Amino acid sequence: SHYFIQSNLRCVVNLMYHPDAYEEFKELNIQDSNERKRRLKLPVPKHDVQMSLWKTLKSFVGKDVTKVTIPVHFNEPLSFLQRLTEDLEYSELLDKAAEDGTSGAMRLMYLTVFSAIPYACVCRRYTKPFNPLLAETYECLREDKGYACIGEQVSHHPPISCLHAEHEKWTFWQEYRMDSKFRPTYFKVTPTGSVHFRVRSTNEHFSWVKPVTTIHNVLVGQLWNDQEGTVTITNHATGQKACLFFTPYKTTKHFTKIKGEVYDLDGNVAIHIKGDWTTHFKYKPVDSETWTDVWSLPVDILEEMKEYWGFSPFSLQLNEPEEDIAPTDSRMRPDQRELEYGKVDEAADQKLRLEELQRSRRKNNSNAEPQWFSLSTDPDTGDSYHTYTGGYWRSKLAKDFGMCPGIY
Prior knowledge:
- The chain contains eleven helices and 19 strands.
- Helices cover 24% and strands 29% of the residues.
- Helix 9 packs antiparallel against helix 10 (344-363).
């Protein structure tokens, strides 16, 4: 997490956050040979839920939903670590933000749009990802996109999920924590963790906090969701900022419409951003009359998504079986795999077994220990959060994950 430049010493401190992560990444020698053929569909379409949503959820009203056991019928065959990885579906915007010669304002513009895209990709999905077990991991090695990403569950109560991705031009990381509120008419999630991005060539560090998400009509009626709040993306090296304004539905029927502004070093608007957080974004420099497209959701995806849980092609590849992964990887979860094959009863049995195993480990003071992230302090913000300590990819290359706990 880390930005500047006020002194050479500051830069050294920043680089020491994950001192060996980039060298480890280079050893992977990622190359897109176009030989890897990823799957284009799941083994079976989504099953129909046969349970009463009302009977199941009404007992949860007013409770801390992070401590509630949700029946597997309402899960999707992904873990929350995989859901976090979906943030990187359109990582080409990070590539553009990290290009040499890109101005500070344009870097912020690309990051501002990037920060909102995940809500377009999941806004039509109301199933719940599996809660990761303590020390559960997920790796996403994408040769076609040029990055290697590792995630880990570092706390169960409260749930804390971490993600770290390396690319030739950038580093991306986040710690996801949240506060939640469940009421008869809505379910509200307030993220309290932060998202970070560093440009490798300049060591500029950017960060932001995600907006509040509310799912409406959780008990009666058609489910729908909205985002609210202002997302501020800060360049900690220069102090330059951008803001994205999510409008709550209470103020307008056009609540998916969105506006943003990128400011110059003097705090004046340099770039305008507009769009719809479910479909597209455009930008316009303040001295121009022309709006330029930045990103739009491919129109053919919407129809394709319906049959397979609302997953995009990127999402449905996240749980594709892989070789030489850690035994703690989300792909190894038996309950999640059973659900992917439409075996709901078997998935429910496995989910219960895994939860009972975790409770037993906690009761016997033999909790699984996270291996790849540790608590540290951000030198720019003073915030404490978990950062990647390195070693995962070298263990993968050595085919040695003997240090990983048995959690399944």
